[in-house]
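Possible regression after last week's pipeline update?

I re-ran a chain I had predicted before the update to compare outputs. Posting the input and the new output here so someone can diff against the archived version. Not blocking, just want to make sure nothing changed silently.
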Amino acid sequence: MPTVHDAIDAAIDEVTTARARVNKVTSTQVRGVDDVAMLKATASTWFHTHRPTVASGAPHVDLSTVDDNFRDLLNSTSKHAAKTTYLQILKGAKDALIGLRDAVLVAPAPAAIANTDDLAPDFSPLAGNPEMRDILTRRWHECAKCVNADAHLAAIVMMGGLLEALFVARANKMPDKSPLTSATNAPKDKTTGKTTNYQEWMLDSYIKVGHELGWITESAKDVADTIKEYRNFVHPAKELRYGVKLGRNDSSMFWQVTKALARQLLLSA
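New output (post-update):
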């Protein structure tokens, strides 16, 4: 199993090799089928092989700069980009990878999660995009950290946000959106009477429609409604009005429910 450092070093070697090959191209544009295939493979290997290793082993580092360079490289292969363009992108990718290697060495490791049940699940059934899977994983870990740090309101707010993101991801997975938009509980525009864009729905609508479509059970829906209400205590005036004081029992209970809801949504995909 390659380590984070192995993955980064391999990516650096591949970019270096690709740059040396592009340097040998004598034409202004890179049009050779083998050359373009090699460049495409270099970018794809980052996203599908090296990046998952780095993201899982070092979730505390920012991969966006490296991703941008490899995304530019991949996009360039579809339009006969100039040799100079490829050389510039590959140099940027190598510099970004070297910076990433340094960041992994000096950045503090993320705090250990005590409960193995708090380890993030595989979000692939809901999110095919690797960047979105990384976001969901980071948010999952932040929920667990907030609970363990006695940041109870922050934990519940994060749980509500995570659930909303999971519901959106579940909706995005539907090849046919008609069951979603024609659901009885789908919110309607007050002026036109038409169903509003599902990506603009609030958590309340997702909970109701998710239950209607069989994504979550009746009991899960009822508790999700409670999480939704408690998340609204992020507004100080509401907390003052209701006199609610959240404690570890609250955040721990809601965290167990959030994890169960997430698993139901993953199984429904």
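Follow-up from reviewer: compared with the archived run. The longest helix spans residues 33-57. Marking as no regression found.
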